[in-house]
Amino acid sequence: MDWFYSYILKDGAGQPIGWEQINNWTSAQGILWLHLDYARDRTAITQEELNSHLSEQMNKTMYILSIVAAIFLPLGLSTGLLGINVGAIPGTDNKFAFVFGSMFLVAFAFVQIFIFKRKKWL
Fold first, then answer.
1. Residue 1's pLDDT band (boundaries 50, 70, 90)?
2. Where are the transmembrane segments (predicted)?
3. Domain extent for 114
4. Which of 108, 104, 72 has its CA nearest to residue 90?
5. Best CA proximity match to 112, nearest among 80, 69, 83
6. Structural domain total, the chain
7. Which long-range contacts (CB under 8 A, 24 or more apart) does 60-64 make?
C-alpha cells in the first residue's frame, strides 16, 4: 500500500511527499477548522444579541401601543354609545350636555393616566 501513497502523493516537482509533510498539512487543516469553528460560534453569538435587541425594541413598541389602546378604547366606546340617535339619550334637553360629556371624557382619560402612572405603567 505504500507504493500507492508514494505514487499518488507527489509534490509539484514530482517528488514523493513524506509522512511528515502530510502531518503538517493535516495539523494546518485542523487549525483552520478550529478557526472556522470559533468564527461560527462568534457569528451565532452576534446573531443572538441582534435578535435579543430586536425583540426588546418590539416589546417596547407593543407596550406603548397597549397603553394607548387602554386609554382610547374606553373613550371610543363611550362616545360611540352616546353618538347613536335614539330618543332616550341623557342630556338631549340640556344645551350644556355636550360640554359636560366632553369634560367627563377628558376627566376619565386623566384618571386613567393617573392610575397608569401610579402603577408605574407609564
1. low
2. 62-84, 96-116
3. 2-118
4. 104
5. 69
6. 1
7. none
Tell me the three cell numbers of residue 9: 502523493
* Secondary structure (3-state) at 108: helix
Read off the C-alpha cell for 43.
457569528
**Nearest 5°: phi and psi at 119?**
-85, 0
∠ CA 68-52-64, nearest 5°, is 5
The helix/strand/coil state of 118 is helix
Each residue's pLDDT tens digit, 12-48: 666 666 667 777 777 878 888 888 999 999 999 999 9
For residue 112 the three cell numbers come to: 386613567
List beta partners, residue 10: 16
Nearest alpha-carbon partner for 116 in 73, 59, 67: 67
State if pTM tops 0.70.
no
